[in-house]
Amino acid sequence: MTSLDLSNGFDVHDYRAKLKLLRQDAGSMSLANREGLSCPACGAEFDRLFVSDDEAVTFDSAPNGPICVARTDERLLVLTH
């Protein structure tokens, strides 16, 4: 299983064939994992990925499963399982 590599930051274009864009605005995007990528935090396969350049983010609802958070110098990644 391929994991998201955050060693040089995160560029969604490196994974565009494996992630499906669900929503995007000026500073954030939500993506679905359609190729079984694994989480950079825990190593398990994740369902959804939220990527943000914003300083603060509010979520309207919580997912039913575990949440992992990973950070690069420029972005915050929230992964739901």
UniProtKB/TrEMBL annotation:
Keywords: Cell projection, Cilium, Flagellum. InterPro entries: DUF7385. This is Flagella cluster protein. It comes from Halobaculum halobium.
